[in-house]
Amino acid sequence: MKRILRLTLLALSLLLVALPALAQEIQVKGRVIDEKGEAIIGASVKVRETPKGAVTDIEGNFTVSAPRKGHLVVTSIGYKSLTVDLSTSKLPLTITLAEEAKALKEVVVIGYGSMQKKDLTGSITSIGEKSFQKGAISTASDLLVGKVAGVQITPEGSPGAGGRIRIRGGASLNASNDPLIVIDGVPIENSVVAGAPSILSTLNPQDIATMNVLKDASATAIYGSRASNGVIMITTKKGKMGQKTQIAVSVQNSLSEAARRVKVLSADDYRALIQRIAPGSVSKLGTASTDWQDEIYQLAYGGDYNISVSGAAGKLPYRASAGFYHQEGVLKTDKMNRASGSLSLSPRFFDNHLSVDANAKFSATHNRFANKDAIRAAVEFDPTRPVRSSDALYQPFGGYFTWLDGTNLRTLAPRNPVALLEQKEDISDVFRTIANLQLDYKVHFLPELRFNLNLGYDYASGKGTVVIPENSSLGWQRYTLKQAGKPDVLKSGTNNSYEQQKRSLLLDFYANYAKDIPALKGRLDVMAGYSYQDWKTSVHNAPDYTYDKTLVTNPVFPVDYPQNTLVSFYGRLNYNLMDRYLLTATVRTDGSSRFSKDQRWGVFPALALAWRMNQESFLKPISWIDDLKLRLGYGVTGQQDGIGNYTYLPFYSLSTNTNRYQLGDSYYNMLRPAAYDADIHWETTATYNVGLDFAFLGNRLSGTLDFYQRNTKDLLNEIPVPAGANFSNRILTNVGNIESKGFELSLNATPIQTKRFTWDVNYNISANNTRITKLNAVEIPGYQGVPTGGVQGATGSYIQIHSVDYAPSTFFVYKQVYGADGKPVENKFEDLHKDNTINDLDKYRAFDPEPKVVMGLSTTLTFDRWTLSTSLRSNLGNYIYDNVNAYMANHAAVLNSGQFFKNTTYEINHSNFANAGDKQMLSDYFLHRASFLKMDNLTLGYDFGRILGRTSLRASATVQNVFTLSSYKGVDPERSIDFSLYPVPRTYTLNLSFSL
User: Fold this and answer.
1) pLDDT band at 7 (very low <50, low <70, confident <90, very high)
2) Secondary-structure percent of the chain, ordered helix, strand, coil, rounded to 5
3) Of 1, 37, 59, 332, most Cβ neighbours within 10 A?
């Protein structure tokens, strides 16, 4: 007992001695500035010996309690951290932070957080507003064209149509190859609402601040089952703390023209051709000389007008914007109008412990879709015929020249291209809202711990009408109205409507703990979270009517509500040891309602290591090395886009009203069982990545080099099944494997930098090689693969195939035989199977339609206030199938037994084919090397600087799609099959932007 009493007294004595020491805390006031003497807002000031800390205000000031002999650790993004010894410092403090290299201090948005570029361990490319493509931009995807190594974007020509995006070539055959797109933390669905041209057509590109592309699995695995094809993270513009109110206005006007057209015969050349191949038919030709492509294409006007207000009201940064975009298509009657608005609020509360980010983007889009069948019709239509005729025969068809059989429509003949455009009114209105509220709370008593809640909402509504008048050749006499006791009545035209809504709800919650651990000489950053996202679509199935509202069919179900849900748990650990050795480990487990309970959950792990070699003692003294980082990464990701919501369930499908069964005098819709696969699950991709990041000479030369290998298993493929094993003889299931290998190199350089002149260069090159390694569950003798790539003019024929040991969609063709004159011999092919018979066994796998190498080059010259910039890109080693000449360049296609005539190309004068049979159309004669060099834009700008006080003005002129150099002379060498392509326009743009 006495011993316990002594110990208690001793403890009290020590406490009394310690109390004065604890009371030695002082109030430390100070200001944090940069090397220019400007205040650094939001810098972190932590007391090393206690949990206390502070954040600098709008003037860079702070106040914090600290021991008299303590230390302050001052950090801010983009600056080197600094430790201040209070025992040797004079109060109040003035703390100057030195900037890190500009590229290294860049903050990059990643999944569920952000990091400085120097701390990244994965393959991530960040593109900011300064580096975006210039000119008339309708969708966000156009901003990235040619800018990122390993990212291939194929632009589309019509207004609002997003280009095809492929990151490292894609990883699927039958599911989606599109990347996951995340807008301000909200992952969006990769399918469009009815009436929208593309998934990004409702987002105003002028509101985008940065686009970050996550390419390897160590970067994308945090998104688990949706990340096999990469992730594109879009961050919109926001106000900044301490920012003065700024009003920005931009006005842009443009004119566009079809840059390339199909080279068909002129009217005179066409008459000469008919005189040569069918002299007796010359008298059947018309007397007009019509360039049908001139008739359907136009000089298209566009305008883009935007205004934004941004700044900070105290501790409330804000930004609001409004925009109106109008673009006519180069195809007549094609147009898009988009009104958009956005609002961003980023207040801070409780001494910056609670951060709130509220974002909302709204858009209302009005579209008129041109009838793209007119493109094919303009290429085919007889150039000796007029657009319109006063002949009474054509008055039932609106006065448009129409191929007739007496007074009846020739159904197999091409339609009048101008009539196709003017007599079809396809109009839609789309409204979309993407909003999120993100709350980030830094715990008061433990500032290293943060809780983050993100609530997201994505709603899109599309409705439209399709109206075709009774006097149109489209839908001519398409319905027979039967009336009891009366003659049948033939009804024409269309007067239909459609409507659809899509809704997505998101809840993300994670906890993040980040702390410097001096004992371990490192920084630990741990995050764990939960995610819930639900998608629901409301499909309104409308009746089918003729133009006068005669009912043709009623939908079986007036409304359908497909829905799916994804529930996820995820975590990430980042460890930075001595600012030299970096570790990132992530894991995500996803549960999807698209799969059965036995297949519902998947686990997607990733691990990445990085070594900042320039921080080692043997390299640190070398002043011209700013960054040298080696990265190693491995991860597993999944793919579920393209998989149906209910394909794992046994179900019965109800027949349509045009497929009913008669019992007595009544007709009934019938139910039949549908094929299903209870074990269907996501495709899974494992990726290995080795990368090197470097920056030299004060960041004048920097870049990234990556090598990767991707192995995808459980690919979806349609395979035959034994009779009686399912409700179909073929089923879509997980059986295939695919392998991709490649490299990417990005270089950024500033060769010249003086007070008056700067030259910046950005170059990227990538190569990707993809091979299918498995397609069936068991070996099937004689199995050639899965046909794909349908051919126009050869019903049921395909020009491509998915085969084991070959690239996806490899061209599968007959080997053409040539005569002594070097010309192809019609319907003569090599007997590769050596059985004296030409059949499918004689086809061979010729070329890959995808390029072997993709390159991009951007350069900017700045002299005083003048700026000249250009962007070029090139594909090398890609091939294209010329379906236009394969289908049109033969006598039979022109003459059509004398019932009607079609135009053709000049190829007919070379090959002189009489009849393009199915085999001839599948000849390698129509495969062409399609390597190209394109100049995407050329921009000249002038910065007028300050005018009228605070107002600054900038003017620029841009030409887009300046030229294309290629040995292939078709419409676009960037496609795999050339037929009826909407031409990518050449656009001339003038832009004025001013701010105050």
Assistant:
1) very low
2) 10, 50, 35
3) 332
